[in-house]
Amino acid sequence: MPHSLSIVILAAGKGSRMKSPKAKVLHEICGREMLFYSIKAARALTDDVIVVVAHQKESVIAAMERYFEGLTFVTQDTENFPGTGGAMMDVKPKHDNVLVLNGDMPLITQYSVSEFMKSDSDIVMSVIELENSSGYGRVVIENGHVLRIVEEKDASDAEKAILTVNAGVYAFKRSVLETYLPKLSNANAQSEYYLTDVIALARKDGLEISPLIVEEVEFKGVNSKFDLSTAEIIMMDRIRRTWMDAGVIMQLPETIYIEEGVCFEGECLIENGVRLCGETLIVNSHIKAHSVIEESIIRDSDVGPMAHIRPFSMIEATHIGNFVEVKKSTLKGVKAGHLSYLGDATIGEGTNIGAGTITCNYDGVKKYQTIIGKNVFIGSDSQLVAPIEIADNVMIAAGTTVTSGKYESGILILSRAPIRKVAGFFTKFFGKGA
Ligand code: UD1
Ligand code: CA
């Protein structure tokens, strides 16, 4: 960066058009709150990132501190100084150049933010040309000079017809903010202090204001739940693209959902309809159609189709087949091909989990562990009642309910009611057949 730069992200507003009890900037896109993305872009350019908060500030701060260290949070006095200008009143940037972003622009990238630093004007402001400008501040330009920005609620009919709008990102010299923020007034339709009024004040004093035409797709504010879904489609596309460029194979990628926290290593193949959530790591593995993996590590394995790997599972050199649910379990060198629930379990190498095996980990009050050793053969339709520990080299007969306790190496465990054969029953009951 040629300039020393501070970045301010405005995130104090309620976002009432979201129609939600949750603060707008905490709504999630690809598994992370939308504010995460603008901070990530800002962080790539400077260490001085200041986030202005007010509405639900405790939740906003707690959410962002999970991802970033060393952010500065400033609380806006929304009682006395509402509005985007009010939001800037207590901000103390460290550097001479101050870039202001809205917290509701998750699609903005580091690259387009850095474009604002290429000019040496007193103010660089983002403009977009739209076919329908409703909802935005209109930019009044005369002879190529920006004169002022008029908010929709304050605009005359002629001003409303202007299709050049303020995208809401600005680069100011710090001295410009220091001079004009104290001069803002709230004599407007919303009785708010508008940051956008700095433009007209600076213009009257002959300062240089450069418009920078930006891409609508990156600068579009998220103001409604529809906007949220549109932004997620674009973000998801970027995430998939990044991982495909890194070598991941995806079949019908537009049907695959991958959250921001997911990572891949080595050669991975992801089939259609897969959902990958949280801080999941997939290494040299094949995830088959319509499987869901949450917050887990999958290494040298194949999973699915239609398997569900729930949080905190570690799966290594393992085959997981269809309709298998795994939760908070460690499986290494295991085969679980069909229809099982494996929860709170540790399962050793060479063990085969028969179809329909269930770990009964919950007694209605507490959860208990299941520990299964190496080379255990579990017959189909067995139940393992936890807490339970099965040593290496054990065979469990199909249909066995293995009750809690410890089982030693080398044994067969079998619990089966004896078979009864009742001759002639079918004909007697149904009145047909031989
Ligand atoms: C703002 C601009 C408008 C521009 C549009 C682009 C002003 C007065 N208007 O309008 O010209 O076209 O963005 O998207 O700046 N915020 C605070 N404190 C507040 C109010 C808002 O921090 O008191 C934050 C919000 O959390 C949000 C951002 O500022 O992240 C923008 O607020 P919003 O209410 O969405 O502004 P717009 O009406 O869209
Ligand atoms: Ca907005």
The CATH class assignment of the largest domain is Alpha Beta
Report the C-alpha radius of gyration, rounded. 30 Å
Which fold name corresponds to the CATH topology of the largest domain?
Spore Coat Polysaccharide Biosynthesis Protein SpsA, Chain A
Structural class of the helix and strand makeup?
Answer: alpha/beta
Please provide the count of β strands. 37
Helical residue percent band? 10-25%
Report the principal-axis shape: elongated
Describe this structure in words.
The protein has 434 residues and is α/β, with parallel strands linked by helices. The protein has two domains: 5-213, Spore Coat Polysaccharide Biosynthesis Protein SpsA, Chain A (Alpha-Beta Complex), CATH 3.90.550.10; 247-413, Hexapeptide repeat proteins (UDP N-Acetylglucosamine Acyltransferase, domain 1, 3 Solenoid), CATH 2.160.10.10. 18% of the residues lie in helices and 32% in strands. Strands 12, 13, 15, 16, 18, 19, 21, 22, 24, 26, 28, 31, 34 and 37 form a 14-stranded parallel beta sheet that branches. Strands 14-17-20-23-25-27-30-33-36 form a nine-stranded parallel beta sheet, with no helix packed on it. Strands 5-4-1-6-10-7-11 form a seven-stranded mixed beta sheet. The model has no long low-confidence stretch (mean pLDDT 96). Residues 10-13, 52, 76, 78, 82-84, 86-87, 102-104, 136-137, 149, 151, 165-168, 194-196, 221 line the site of uridine-diphosphate-N-acetylglucosamine. Calcium ion is lined by residues 102, 104, 221, 223.
